[in-house]
């Protein structure tokens, strides 16, 4: 750890205490007043910083993306509107945008995808969230297998895809309405299922709360839950698990 | 209809108007002050009156049961405690009590059971509610087939019982926790499913609300829902449907 | 059952195991990646597949409708916007649209309507949901009788229509605000009532939750509930019951 | 108003300013540290102070009741347990207790009851709350007519009592479960209905919330609502209205 | 009562039974299919029918208003948008519209206003609801005194208007945010307070729920509550009470 | 107190009783019918009146601002839209507007800022609420130190700013999503933390309710909470505390 | 700060790096496995650690109290049952217990109380929470003035105690039911009000949620809120503010 | 897969079709009527079946445990009361019981524990849930490191244990009240965190809902959530992840 290194230099007198203190801080984030960019994150967590675009002021968004690009960081922006993409595209023409998942990407390096994450979703309307999960996992170099529209009202669609599903290191299960797909999968597989309730539905679904409660209360094992529509979060966790599975020497 | 008959007699002068008015009321219920027993119900709905015992004052419960027995009505009491049964047993020794379903019965006539209602439940803990449903349906002369402990976390248990389930005129699906069984059944059968959420579970199940929301939001067709733990209501509705199916000449 | 047939052919060697497996899957659904069309549904449930249009991506909606038409399936689309209808109309000019119920239909065959479902609603504002229920039931060949605007604040309107209501095999009760109509009907009829809470109202109706709770907690018997504004679901269930009543030989 | 009187005396010098200030306060309440008994209430509101017994410390309850008796005030205590009554009975043997309504009374003066308040309730289990309302109104000298067990599942019981109900100056409607009785009455009468939801029911009644929402969202006119199980509050308001109706010269 | 009259005619043979039945129904409402206009309401309740305009289909709204005008009924429409008013204005030029309260009126007869209702509101933003209440009461011939912007954060504004408030037969209290004004008034007056929570506020006011709960749980007496923003309902009830107070001979 | 002064003048006959009464009222507020401007507030609370602009009718807003300016009061308007600012700007060209905080100000006097309030926020998206808090405090003459974007997911940003934070008399902590920043700060400082949950987030944040509950349930000490997005309220309270800290002679 | 001191010693070689690390940790807390006692808290926050007794295992509670006593720390235990007190009393006979507030205290030093905190409560039933607040503040050496039973239903009780209330550096306002007292006080004073909703009430108070929402949404200024029944938290914050007011040299 | 094997035998005629069907079912579960024991689970999921004891009928519990023991299965029972343990102990004396975690175990094989799961909890009161998690993981052969009482109000306790925490393959974070510990850990580690909200707390924690919402809405990455108090579920998932990390050849 660098901190120990620093203390050593303090001890042997090659580093002044005040300088040491300042040095530590600079290596960890850059302060723009309205934002403190966390350059230390990758070291701490093994993941690049990601930008949640929804609701960001134009000015802030442009500057944050610009700073990452200027430092040769890769860029992943989630929940970006078409308007926001256009705004950024003018300045950084290499940015790409996927309308379904609302993801902005920059400088996707050609490191090979590895491992195996299966992203399932219950209905066609859940695909935007499923894609946010899948593309996030791919951004972080996970290989992804998509198994879409296998909701429990036609449960044979689950069974005829079970072999593919069972090859995963981690399963992401995206479902709206009553979200029962998680429980069914939970009874059929041996790896963790990250469940993502979606806001798809109407009436007493309360914007996804019904699906969230279904998943949280599941009688099946191996199911943990992230926020409603939080495809990004599921893609992140699935990657953490996928890395553990493929990377023995940690 | 009797009312027309009455009007006829008013018209041809064989019945005084005031008397007619009083006559109508008497034929419909008896007034005890604290309760108005609805003797007309069977004619209106085809079902005997049933007593919801939970929380009834001792004095009221004893009198109501006594009045039904005195008039040779059959008796079905739901949500009865052991204490309430003992209280009634002293006065009416022919009453029977089932501890699991908490049902009190009296004078069960030997009319044959007919039709076919399947009562499913997801887990062993859901059996008390399932039995309330099953025994209610039987009290109303429906034949009942019980398929218990087929929750979706071991979904092969559903499939190996599917033939039995598919022979029903109506299915009652009792499930707590996340209540996903309804959705799975909904995709596999062609008859109506009356879903009963139960309060079984803990934490974010909110006393059965989670299961209720799952069932109300089901992506599968043919599912309607009654109140949490309301086995009685489901047994009643299933009987209505069962009668329609077996009784052509209505 | 076809599966047994298949096993027979496997046994007598006329079918290869791998082929058998593939055969089963093909007969059950077609996989478009973003959707898996469930051609087996009609056999399983007796009902054609129906499209929930709300929120579907343009591209997906057009392809799904197109595939059904190409295979000579009848089409029922619910919750379709005027925009979606126009989109489809351009390609499939025989489609029809009802603005009140927001239903799209195609190729309505002239099979006769039969049985009797009564659709009641409490107020004029509940008619869109009532019509979704009524037209769904008609699409599935049920005869429907509409009794609208009979809310309990003018309860004589219920009584003067009671004879029509009592002729039903199944009643659909559509009501918003406090949804009390279900309980009143429940005390007056002998057949099942499928209750549909609507989101009509304001303030503490919480988008239909108040009406849903009223119906779920009804002191009257024979009432089961579907999701807020779910006219389609009610029409489906009522048809299941209506078919049981008219079709002795199942 | 006394305050003007006081200012007059200050002006003509017959009252010292400091004394005036102290005088005003004393006439309004007595301070016991843990409680400030509001002797001015009757003058302000026309009603004696009433004690909400539930959860009061023994010591406080005994002292408060004792002080009212010592000053020859009449006493009405609501939500009193048998234990609390026994505690008080030892010291003040003239106190009376009604087990159903859980009301404690003392020194009920023989002023004649007048006017007409009708207290309705939907089921036998709602009687405790109905009696709290009725006896509160009687304590405040209102004449009360009780019409119990007229829930909407047997709606003929409402109609055959409609004449009695229509003679009221004000109606109190007490109902649990789904609380639909209020809406039915609201469509049939011309005087205000004070609706009291009760906690009677189970499952998705949420301790009376379902009935409260039904009543607050009623499509009928003339309905206002008090807290769940608040019979006392309804008896109080009904008396206010009853007094307005019988007392022309205010 | 007319019904007795009818029975007399049936008895003495001057009226055929079938005709009698039909006669009764016609006198009570007119059936337009989508709506059943309740002409009997005024006789039953003493109030004209009122139209809740929000969300009514154009066609229905125009016809309903037209039918009332054609029968020389007075018209009160609440929650009408500017668009709806324009739509109606074209056909019925005598209609008037108040933008603040969103009320449409027609043919306001010059019967004198009588009695005294005080309408209070807590803040300037609550005025639209207060005006809906006030103008409803005036439409039903109640005299109204408006006391606006007296919220408890500047409580001297309550006290300096207390004399006016205390002259009321009934008080309407309109308040959003935390709705504390009701409790303060409740401790200061002797007549009933109809409380109207408003949706004014933000954050944890949950669209008026916070104010509703405050009012329902008030420690003060004499407070009953109507739905959030339901000025109309409060104006109606206040008029019922006002009439009782001014009209001895009922 | 002026009231004593007034009573003196009443006593010695230099003031008529009726005049005295009128005098008192005038000194306290001015009545515009739709609003009662509270000129006494500054004396009572030490703070100028502030205008909550959101949802105010144009006419009312213009008049209220105009009256304050006419009386040489300073003006602070919160939650003002660009439209509202333009409306006011035309009449009162000296008004200033901050787009981020949506604050309108007028005639900011050059009294020096004093004390020390630290305003923290968790993310860039919380800045609008943080600025409402900061600028409110500055309007009331508090010195403010802004420490933004120090959310707990990069907790080193908290620690490297801890010295600045610990110099505060009062800390305002603004956070959305799960609002955990308050608890972390609460364990590290010795002065009160006014916590402001924001509506930033999505899904199960329920418009800020999740953050509010986090803060209300904090295991750390010294944390009290204001309404969701209520930056103004936090700035006000922080100023009250700051004044206590800097002003010994109260 | 000690940390700098430590780094100095590391630099000049008088402290080994590993030892330094261990030293820092020991000075901050002691680890018992099941608990980590935070001896550094007083230095960080200026307050002793306080024990929340409710639900603590017997064994843990006894050991934690014992360790504090062994180190000559003062002890404050909140939410302690009579059973827990008896358990501790056997071992540590100097402990004292207050039944109303459920507070356990040990070794209360005779440092003088200073400053001025006013604790108000609305009703007699709120006193337990008010006492928890008052005694917590006194434990931390604040002078407390108790003003109890001044709920808004008898608002003159507020006014006649206003002078006492206005002398406070900070006000704690404890109220259940609808909790309106906070808003009334907020309009009358110039210092911060820490509001404590209590669970006192019934029905739609939802265990204190109604009062919490009232306080959070208050239209008055200067009000911040702590958890339901959290008297301890309010006493802590009020002490923080009281110290700022009396202690100029921080 | 065995199914293929079976089909082979069907094909080559060594197995009759009816027998094959029956064979499949028997190998999958045993049907006791009230329960269907899932002997296939271990093969499907890699985990033994676990018994959720809470609320199980005595008779059912005894039989289920007995059957597992009779088949030489290991037994893990969660949420067992002392009463249930005594009941079982009489029959199966080798069973062991842990009072803190309420876990019953039988025949714990001496297979070595491997991998590394860190179980953290925020406070001493969270230990029962933390132990349920830890002992579940150990039952499934995971090595567990316990880091307890590191709640964020004394955040240095997190930092001084960070090295241990960072050595985990998976972290379980157990926290009640506001549950902020998850977010803090989430910003500091690189492996998945399974968050368990507990019901510890009071007032507006709503039985653990507040903590659940905090965790679901966390601004930190890598956090997924299970049901309130669901230590078992977390131990299960953590073991799934731990196995992936240590077991390369899957």
Report on the architecture of this protein.
- The structure is a homooctamer.
- With about 250 residues, the first copy, chain A, is an alpha/beta fold.
- Chain A folds into two domains: about 30-105, no CATH class; about 115-250, Rossmann fold, CATH 3.40.50.1970.
- Chain A contains eleven helices and eleven strands.
- Chain A has a five-stranded parallel beta sheet with strand order 8-7-9-10-11.
- In chain A, β5 (about 95-100) and β6 (about 105) form a beta hairpin.
List the helices and strands and how they pair.
8 copies of one chain form a homooctamer.
Chain A: H1 2-11, H2 17-28, E1 30-31, E2 36-37, H3 41-45, E3 51-52, H4 58-70, E4 75-78, H5 82-91, E5 96-98, E6 103-106, E7 114-121, H6 127-139, E8 142-147, H7 156-159, H8 162-166, E9 170-175, H9 181-186, E10 193-197, H10 209-216, E11 223-225, H11 231-246
Parallel strand pairs in A: 3-4, 7-8, 7-9, 9-10, 10-11
Antiparallel strand pairs in A: 1-2, 4-6, 5-6
Helix pairs in contact in A: 4-5, 6-11
What would you call the quaternary organization? homooctamer
Biggest sheet: strand arrangement of chain A: 8-7-9-10-11
Class from secondary-structure proportions of chain A: alpha/beta
> What proportion strand of chain A?
15-25%
CATH architecture of the largest domain in chain A: 3-Layer(aba) Sandwich
* Low-pLDDT regions of chain A: none
Shape of chain A: globular
Order of helices and strands of chain A: HHEEHEHEHEEEHEHHEHEHEH
Primary descriptors:
five-stranded parallel β-sheet, 2 domains, 250 residues, homooctamer, globular, four-stranded mixed β-sheet, Rossmann fold, alpha/beta
